[in-house]
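Human: If only I could read backbone structure tokens as easily as an amino acid sequence. Take your time, and here it is.
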Amino acid sequence: MDGLDTITADVGKLVRQQAALADFGSFAFRETDLSRILAEAARICAACLGVPFCKICRYRPETEDLLIEAGFGWKPHVVGHVVSRADMSSPQGRAFVTGAPVIAEDLRAGTSYALAAFYAEHGIVSTVDVLIKGNGQAYGVLEIDSPEQHTYDQRDIDFLTGFANVLAEAVARAQSTQTLQALVVEKDQLLARMKALIVDKDHLLADKKVLAEELQHRVRNNLQIIYGMLVSQIDGTGDESRMREGTRAIARRVMTLAHVYDQLLGSGMTREVDAGKYLELLCGGLRRLQHVQQGGVALVCDTGSLVLDLDAVTVLGLIVAELVSNSYGHAFPTGTGTITVALRGDDSADRATLTVTDDGVGFEDTGDGKRHGLGLVRRLARQVRGTVALRSDHGVAWTLTLPIARNRVSGVSVGAHGDIPRGT
């Protein structure tokens, strides 16, 4: 009867183990979360072999060790933290290196293993380790642990080995699924970026088309301005000196507009231009234009970087050219002096300030708006909703204040709402 009971018990144990193995296989091949697969494997192995502890160690090639990746029955500080060398110094290391099951029925009986502290902490006496290896590189080791001495038979080893093989396939499948999911996410992100780039490209092409049309419009209008100035100069007077001065004024304004286009093309056809850099180039051109007759007059340009709307920059250039020319022509009868052009932006006050000063003889503002380009300067300032102040006690100081918003000029746009005034 005892023999029959033993056989019945063994058969029942075998049936339970095979059923558990089948159930785990079904679960593992439905589940894609590797951490849940490993945790369930540890629980089932411990239950099927009647032990309170089980752990799954993952091999880490970069550090050549085995990390307890999942487990059942252990205190919280064990799983995810404890490691052992992947060598012959521990039961799991020996199983990983040799590839064969390692059975330690009584760890108290003087072994050569260098066991981690948690073995004694949990009172572990016996262990069995089998390799988790499918068709590829070994994942790690499956180990069951007990605080009581056990004698494990071949059927127990066969069950653990078969379970480890199924687990290896489940791990490989879960890892492949995770890789595919990552690739899908990456592909979706790449497609999203490509779509965004296509949208940006379409917007850029549309902007370039608008800007090209705007540039064509500006060139046409400014050529008409130049034509008007030439006709006015030809019809106005036959005096040779005034003719030379008028021609110089035309050249000055043509140069001013040319520098605008240089900046526009150099900045990639945007609607904004660095006004400070533009005025520095313009001052250089004005120096060259006046150098022959006014070699003793210094022109200083003190500007920082300030990005403004293209229309505002055009207006600033015309104003600077007009005022600097007036200073060259009227402020220095002795042929020496200094003209200073300065531009500053104040984001907190949403405004920019242009000053053009000289230390010459000054002049009296009669209020008629015709002398020294005062009327033209005021008309230009109105194009950008600016205000002009003039001081002429010790030399001349012009101050133009215009509103800005986030480094862009707000208000009326010269190009969109009216041609640049043609006054001389």
Notes: DSSP finds ten helices and 14 strands in the chain.
